[in-house]
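Pipeline run #58 for the internal structure catalog. This entry was flagged by the ingest filter as a single-chain record with no existing model, so it goes straight to prediction. Upstream metadata was stripped on purpose; only the residue string is passed forward. Reviewer on rotation: M.T. Logging verbosity set to normal.
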Amino acid sequence: HIISSTGTSALQLLCYNSMSEEALTILDQNVDNSINSVSNLGYTPLSFACGNKLNQVALKLLAHPKISNINQETTEHNCKTPFGLSCNENMLNIAMIILPKLLASDLYKVYNKKTYLMLAINNCVHKLANAILNTSFDCNIEISDDNNKTAFDYACDNNNNELYMKMIDTYSIEKLTKNY
């Protein structure tokens, strides 16, 4: 229950410090009411669990009946959300649980100047990339990163025929190649 002067709860500190067993113990004992606590920088226990690849902790948090603000955005730059962190850390099972709970506005967020779709493709998480493309949301397909690469470029670079053909079928070639 203890919250530090920085607004960080004991559960957040355990997740931040990659203390998976201790965090799971707190969650199992149901002694911490800070499951949805948000630090001064906008991090939740789920954010820290995803950022530190604490898969079992993230699963337990997502299964908790009181979980809310699942894709809480941090106040730091780069829009580090649990979904973005799970995409970046190749936590496919966590990202696949969060994806159906996202709002359309969540897929517009960018993590380190890459869209969630770019992260999924670049990290070779093709199942997640397909799931993102299958949403009814606009996936920021025309956004490019610092290297002027789009999600389409990453699919081509990774020789992922299935993904780039799906993009061609879904979007106009003009939208996919606007940077050329």
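catalog note: The chain has a mean pLDDT of 81.
catalog note: The CA atoms of residues 155 and 161 lie 7 Å apart.
status: ready for reviewer M.T.
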